[in-house]
Amino acid sequence: MDKQIAKHFMIQKNSPIPLYFQLKAQLLELLKEGVFQPGDKLPTEAEFCELLDISRPTVRQAFLELINEGYINRMKAKGTFVSQPKIEGFFFQKLSSFDEEMRSLHLTPSTSVLTSEVIATPEICQKVFANSEQVFHLERLRYADEQPMVLVHTYVPYERFSGIEKVDFESVSLYDVMAHDYDTPIIYVDRSVEARLAPMCEAKLLEIDPKQALMHVKTIAYNKDDQPMELSIADYRGDRNQFKMRLMNRES
Q1: CA angle centred on 86, ends 82 and 90, rounded to 5°
Q2: If 189 and its partner were Cys, which of 38, 178, 221, 246 is the partner (CB 3.0–4.6 Å)?
C-alpha cells in the first residue's frame, strides 16, 4: 500500500466502535475527499490486514457494506475498485430519447447497432402487435462517454414501418424516424422495471461481471390512436444507472 494513502487510516482497537465500521468510515471519507477516484483500484484485503493489524473478516465486512451501498465494486481476478458515479435518469418522468437524456447530463452518447432485421413476429410481440405478421427487430448497445450503459431490443410492426431496416440507427433516433418519415409520433408509453441478474451474454456486452444486477425495463409506446407502435426491452447496468421519479399528492 502506498505510504501516502496509508497515513489516512487510524484504527482504534480500544474504541467501542466496531473495527470494520471504523475502516468503512475512513474509506468513505477518502472517497469523498477524492483521495480515491472513480475507477481507482483499492489496496487488497491482505494489504489492509498487514497495515492496520486487523483480521481479514474485518476488512471483508467493511468492503461488503461498501459494495452493497454502491461505493465500490469487486471484479473477479482483478481486484476491488471505486465505483463510477451513477447516472441519474428521469426515465419515468418524461418521454425523451437516450441521446437527449445523456446530453442533458453532459455525457456524450453513442450507439452500436448489433442487429437490424425483419423477422416473423416472435412470441414476445404477439400480444402487443396482434395483427402483425412481421416485425422490425433492432438490437442496440448504447454508450455514455464510451462506456456501455444499456442493451436494448426494439420491435416495431413492419407493416406500419416498411423499409425502416434501411435506416442507420447509429446516427438517428428511432422516435424521430417514426415521427418524421412515417408520420407516427409516439404520444405516450407504458413502462415497467424489475431487477434481474445479468446473463453471460449481456454481461459481456455491458462489460460487467456475470450475475451483476441489471435494471430490466419493458416499454410499450403508443400513437395518438392508442395503438402500440413499439415494444422495447432494455437492460441497464445497475452499477451505473438510477432512475428518479416524482409523485404528486392529488390533494396538494
Answers
A1: 180
A2: 221
